[in-house]
Amino acid sequence: MVVASACDPRPPQPSFEPMSDVKTLMAAVIEPAAEVYWDAVGSWDDSTGTHVMVPTTDSAWSAVQAAAITVGESGNLLLIPPRAVDQGTWAQLARGMTTASREALAAAIARDTSRVFSAGAALYDACTACHAKYATEILRPNAK
């Protein structure tokens, strides 16, 4: 008699042992990386004029790329039990964060500041959609 699992061509799935809960992952990994991305490009006006903030060195652009990767991969980390709250809305929103991060990474690789800004807005929307459902007391992780 042959056991059905012996015929399964898929390799066994690795087990995961998360080191943190969602709140700690947000505070230690996701929020700092998202802040690096969101703060990479922008402009502001004051009494001395308009100021523009853009990455100007290879290392600065690499940091923006790393931030996009970190946030995107963190979407995958949010799908690992016991962090995964459910396989419905939670999973959809976590995948949305990863999807938004893919565009954020592409924009950073292209060094296209307009795309980085737009991708940052899309990433912010993905984050706030999840917070609106699962962390209503925190619409942006660093808000007090």
Supply the key terms.
single chain; 144 residues; mainly alpha; Four Helix Bundle (Hemerythrin (Met), subunit A); two-stranded antiparallel ribbon; globular
Give the helices and strands, then pairings.
Blueprint: H1 22-38, E1 42-46, E2 49-53, H2 58-77, H3 89-110, H4 113-134
Antiparallel strand pairs: 1-2
Helix pairs in contact: 1-2, 2-3, 3-4
Describe the fold and architecture:
The chain has helices at 22-38, 58-77, 89-110, 113-134; strands spanning 42-46, 49-53. With 144 residues, the chain is mainly α. The protein has one domain: Four Helix Bundle (Hemerythrin (Met), subunit A) (Up-down Bundle). A two-stranded antiparallel sheet has the order 1-2. The termini are far apart.
Quick recap of the structure?
With 144 residues, this protein is mainly alpha-helical.
Which structural category do the helix and sheet elements fall into? mainly alpha
CATH-level-2 architecture: Up-down Bundle
Low-confidence stretches: none
| Extended strand count | 2
- Kindly give the count of domains: 1
Mean of residue pLDDT values: 91
Spatial order of the strands forming the largest sheet: 1-2
CATH topology: Four Helix Bundle (Hemerythrin (Met), subunit A)
Level of helix content?
55-70%
Oligomer: single chain
Q: What gyration radius follows from the Cα positions, in whole Å? A: 19 Å
Please write the CATH class name: Mainly Alpha
The geometry reads as: globular
